[in-house]
Amino acid sequence: MKLEGNDWIYSKKVKEHFLNPKNFLKNKKEIKDFDGHGVVGNMKCGDLMEMWIKVKNDKIIDVKWSTFGCASAIASTSILSEMLKEKGGTPLKKALKITGKDITKRLGGLPAIKIHCSVLGDQALRAAIYDYAQKNNRTDLKVEKPLEEEHH
Amino acid sequence: MKLEGNDWIYSKKVKEHFLNPKNFLKNKKEIKDFDGHGVVGNMKCGDLMEMWIKVKNDKIIDVKWSTFGCASAIASTSILSEMLKEKGGTPLKKALKITGKDITKRLGGLPAIKIHCSVLGDQALRAAIYDYAQKNNRTDLKVEKPLEEEHH
Amino acid sequence: MKKIYFDNSATTPVRKEILKEALPYFSNNYANASSFHSMGLSAKKALNESRKKIAKILNCTQEEIIFTGSGTESINLAIKGIAFKKMLQGKKGTIITQKTEHPAVLNTLAWLKKIGFNTIQIGVNNEGIISLKELEETITNEQKKGNEVILVTIMYSNNEIGTIQPIKEIAQLCHKHHTILHTDACQATEYLDIDTKKLGVDLMTLNGSKVYAFKGTGLLYKKKGIELEPLLHGGEQEFKLRAGTENVPGIVALAKAMELAHKEKKSESKRITKLRDYFIKKIEKEIPKSYLNGSRTKRLPNNINISFEGVEGESILLRLNEKGILVSTGSACASYSLDPSHVLLAIGREHALAHGSIRFTLGKYTTKKEVDYTIEKLKKTIKFLREISPVWRE
Amino acid sequence: MKKIYFDNSATTPVRKEILKEALPYFSNNYANASSFHSMGLSAKKALNESRKKIAKILNCTQEEIIFTGSGTESINLAIKGIAFKKMLQGKKGTIITQKTEHPAVLNTLAWLKKIGFNTIQIGVNNEGIISLKELEETITNEQKKGNEVILVTIMYSNNEIGTIQPIKEIAQLCHKHHTILHTDACQATEYLDIDTKKLGVDLMTLNGSKVYAFKGTGLLYKKKGIELEPLLHGGEQEFKLRAGTENVPGIVALAKAMELAHKEKKSESKRITKLRDYFIKKIEKEIPKSYLNGSRTKRLPNNINISFEGVEGESILLRLNEKGILVSTGSACASYSLDPSHVLLAIGREHALAHGSIRFTLGKYTTKKEVDYTIEKLKKTIKFLREISPVWRE
Ligand SMILES: Cc1ncc(COP(=O)(O)O)c(C=O)c1O
Ligand SMILES: Cc1ncc(COP(=O)(O)O)c(C=O)c1O
What we know:
The complex is a heterotetramer, with 2 copies of chain A (152 residues) and 2 copies of chain C (394 residues).
Chain A: H1 12-19, E1 36-42, E2 47-56, E3 59-68, H2 71-85, E4 90-91, H3 92-95, H4 100-106, H5 115-135
Antiparallel strand pairs in A: 1-2, 2-3, 3-4
Helix pairs in contact in A: 1-2, 2-5, 4-5
Chain C: E1 4-5, H1 16-22, H2 24-27, H3 38-58, E2 65-68, H4 71-88, E3 94-98, H5 103-114, E4 118-122, H6 132-144, E5 149-153, H7 167-176, E6 181-184, H8 196-199, E7 203-207, E8 218-222, H9 237-240, H10 248-286, E9 290-292, E10 303-308, H11 313-322, E11 325-326, E12 328-329, H12 342-346, H13 351-355, E13 357-361, H14 368-387
Parallel strand pairs in C: 1-11, 3-4, 3-5, 5-6, 6-7
Antiparallel strand pairs in C: 2-8, 7-8, 9-10, 10-13, 12-13
Bound molecules: pyridoxal-5'-phosphate (PLP) (2 copies).
One pyridoxal-5'-phosphate (PLP) is lined by residues 70-72, 102, 104, 155, 159, 184, 186-187, 207, 209, 218 of chain C.
């Protein structure tokens, strides 16, 4: 009964972020400090994500999130928030280019059946940027309106 | 791995007679001393029995046999020969009444699937008595002619 | 880290006494039970004695027991055995079941539907129990339409939520309407009465992997007079109903397991029920918005299935796993599929709660200390996950 | 008394190294391989690693291996899997086999015949080998009649007489005529090349009980692209082709067994072949009118099947048994049925000799000393039984 390496279905990175998620919203009162807000997923599918972004000089400088979902959903939102905040923040245009694939890669991969979960992170981000763009009349950002009921 | 009792498919009695059969024909020359001869079974079915009887004063006083067949076939012929010879021999009329059941009983029973074998013994005996009756014009014995090809 | 195993309904460890009983048949007394030499006969004897022991427990004859390779196989044999028999007579017919059955039943029926049988699933109430009235109406409706009801298959107790069906009454009802009842008793063997005469069932499936015996073993009880087509054709083993070299060690282990279960049933059921009720009470007290799934009374002694509002099952499972606590969930995320438990949906749980369910199945080796430790860790886990959840509003 | 086991083709003892490898999965690492917690994942890992090992040996991908519960089940899955697939498309068709197959093949085909498939058995020569020409004619004849040949199933090597069929050539022939080949390789695993690419087979059955692994285990190799209906419906295990809780210890044991067999194949085959040829030569020299059944060259290294004129097999078997020598026979008397071996009849043996056959199947633990002792006892046994036989005339 040799258990080589870890006996997790997920990568070490996923495990790390799932067990110690970063940047999640601890206090509902913090919301008012943020400039954009997105929600994707639904309870029927078992995944729901909310994301808040703070923008300064066209750069995302802070991120908070809440997630209902499995370990990979939680870890992928957590690592996305870290990605966005590193090196002093992420320009909005660059943030819009982040894909599910990028997140998955940063996580060190995901089991095939779980790939769909990581896709929610970039969608929540896009929804938050859309919200920011709407509020600030930033049609130049060319971000699409998120779908109401997001099935995956 | 407790093996209670013996690990044979057959009774102790069958085992005994099979391993140490009694009264089989050792020497073909002996045949001439006998008064009746019967053969039943066939090679297709895997059982063939030959029996010789010596008759004196309407009594079978000696028996010899040869058998090709499984353990129960050998044991049943052997025990039948013993049955016939005990107490100084068996009157012909009494011998004709011996059934497969009697033999099986004396053997301490047989596995269900094997019962058919023991039936050959009494048939071989009947064939030998028929032969004796034919040779000695003993129609009073009322023994039927054995079937040519005995399938069972 | 020592593991706390709360997944006994998924499978049980092999009990030492059971392994010990079977071990000589691996490498010492290993012959084929169909061989005629002494070692073969000794294997046959072990087989026959196992069958005799089990027959006594099931209160049936030895010829009514068919050893198979799993619960799934027994179920497939029972259902397809009846269906193929009809098919060979040039008939088909209706098979009735209910919504919370194990996939082995549901998918077997789905397949029979593809080849032309009529299949009906009746629903359950919010405890997971079928309505006898609905079952009766379903049977008689079919019969009125001229459709022969060739089989009713209703599980004895559910593997996810532990709900116990009124099998005795169901059997009586089936017989009243001249139809046959198969019951899947895989989860019942350890704790419930499996006397086939008392239950009145015609076919009953059991397996070894849930009763501290071996994986890959099972049996089908088949009442005398019920006729089945074999599923595995070949040699003449198992009264010509199930071909293949007999798995003597597996069968010896199954017999020993059933014997032990039988002997300890009363005391173990009592002990485990008490522990279960303590566990449920504690959770409900310590963790707000936790909802027990299934019935409070018609429930397997060892089953706790509970949904936590605002959190997802796989997350709970994996965080408990980090604390050495092994559980199962009805969440889609932990099923290698994408749908939440069909059982939880059948009892009317909304998707959110179905996704947030955890099953603790207690066993022989469960202690109160383990339960206490688990409650403590569970409390913290739920609290944390609710903190990061967008749907939890205190 | 120490037993001399010459019944390795009926089943083998579990080898110590193999039991050791599997033992931790009984009571320590015992979880259900579909469970999501760490113990479940570790079971899954053991499963996957076993599959990987076997895939390497069979020279195939992991997805091409379906674990089952026996050789019989694999055979039923292969044949009925193909047949039911056709049936669901509203078609039937012809399945071709040959006369010396194991009952698992013959009785599966007999059953499919009952439900409307066309089945054909071609004959064999007196060595037990089929004629490629006859097979080709049979296929093309069917095709000319407009009957689709949906499957050819020919065993790799025979369990009674050890005859090896030219599987590679048979596979080529089947593919030339666009039909599929299944081969029953249960007896071949230990000694012959089972590289699926080299053989070119589409489906191949193996089992554990003949290779020093566990009874109740087996696998089916299924080439990518070949489509089967499952036989056991239920959970989603084994790529949705074979439902039921995975028998992890059994699978681990099977993988270890195949690994050992693979490693030792060359040396063991050589050793056993030598012993076999010595055994045969000795018998033929010491016992007059003894006739080897099967082929002298196209023969499994471990198989000796020989008929003794004038004596019946069960009698030989039981008298050898008394000397601690365990063998098998093609005699009707030792088969729980009443017909002599269909294999011996198929190679043209008359009934008398078919009834008088004894099979010695050598194995891993067979020694020359055992062979010598056996020959001595065999000689005496035959002599004695011939003395009491009415058909023996010296
Ligand atoms: C209720 C029920 N039925 C059937 C089965 C199938 O049994 P097995 O996995 O032995 O095939 C199980 C367990 O998996 C079960 O819990
Ligand atoms: C050639 C052959 N095929 C199939 C089988 C059936 O295998 P099992 O007994 O594992 O079902 C056997 C052994 O019994 C065999 O020798």
